[in-house]
């Protein structure tokens, strides 16, 4: 199941199970956190002190 299938429309086709919803939340949150720290690390390496 792709994330675009969940967020399409008004949410009628969203997963009914709470565990699946929590799983998607954790997956999206962890990916965004990893990207944030990755970009912060690159900026830290690029910008001189």
Number of helices: 2
Helix percent reads 55-70%
Major β-sheet annotation: none
Overall average pLDDT: 83
Secondary-structure element series: HH
Tell me the Rg in angstroms: 16 Å
Low-confidence stretches: none
Backbone shape: elongated
- Report the strand count: 0
Query: What portion of the residues fall into strands of 2 or more residues?
Result: under 5%
| Alpha-beta content class | mainly alpha
Terminal-residue CA separation? 45 Å
Transmembrane segments: 22-47
Protein name: DUF2474 domain-containing protein
Keywords: Membrane, Transmembrane, Transmembrane helix
Q: Any key phrases for this structure?
A:
about 50 residues; mainly alpha; membrane; transmembrane
Describe, in short, the structure shown.
With 49 residues, the protein is mainly alpha-helical.
């Amino acid at each position: 199941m792709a994330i675009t299938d969940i967020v399409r429309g008004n949410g009628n086709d969203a997963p009914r199970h709470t565990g699946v919803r929590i799983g998607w939340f954790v997956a999206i949150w962890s990916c965004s956190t990893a990207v944030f720290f990755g970009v912060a690390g690159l900026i830290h390496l690029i910008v001189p002190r």
